[in-house]
Amino acid sequence: MSKSFTTDPNPDLTYFAPSGEIDRGSALVVFPGGGYSHRAEHEGKGYAEFFAAEGFHVFVCAYRTGELEPTLAPAPLEDALSAVSIVRKRAEELGYSPNRIGVIGSSAGGHLAAHVSTVSSSWGAEYRPDWTILCYPVIAFFGPAAHMGSRRNLLGESADDEVAKQFSPHSLVDGDTPPAFLWHTLEDAGVLMENSLLYAESLRRNGIPFELHVSEKGGHGLGRGADFGWAERAVAWLELTGRVGSAEVVA
Fold first, then answer.
1. Which of 8, 58, 172, 210 could make an S-S bridge to 48, C-beta 3.0–4.6 Å?
2. Pfam families of this UniProt entry (predicted)?
3. Closest of 155, 157, 139 to residue 147, by C-alpha
């Protein structure tokens, strides 16, 4: 890669305050999918509205997509790392804990959420999410499960497998990677289910807690339209494991 790596100080973030009767004192940064060519609104605003109603402070990140010369990378990762840092710095102002900040991503946005989760520890605690939710994520950029469309859009046509491994989160998991909730469908032909299995196996080998759900039915890009309550299950996982604050009633 010919670009130097720096964090973008001003990624575009849209804030959704808790909209229901509870405030969990926790924040969530959303990375919509779109194959790194665009960002899907139903995986951005659509998620934000649900989690805000569940008492989360939600920030949808409009990370950079499309064509940048000579490659798009590492622009999306720069934006994602900066987004986590900015959300952490705003904790006191907006009223949530700086130690209860998660990320969620779908498809290529899931790749970005997993990528920021696996590289952030080397950049310092302010960039590291405390937990990760991955919805039918792109994980592999090499091997039989690789999602070549996202790889080409992010790394360009000329990137080889050695470069691709540096952008494949299952190859980057270590003991500092945050816990994760993952879900996929068996019928997903857009991003193969093996992507979630690869990440889960890497978490298991490194002793990182996770929860994995595989639904038999459903294609790719379902978002909140999936026929099982993955979002409710993710919230339950966060509650049961103590990764979010108590659901305090808003006066």
1. 58
2. BD-FAE
3. 139
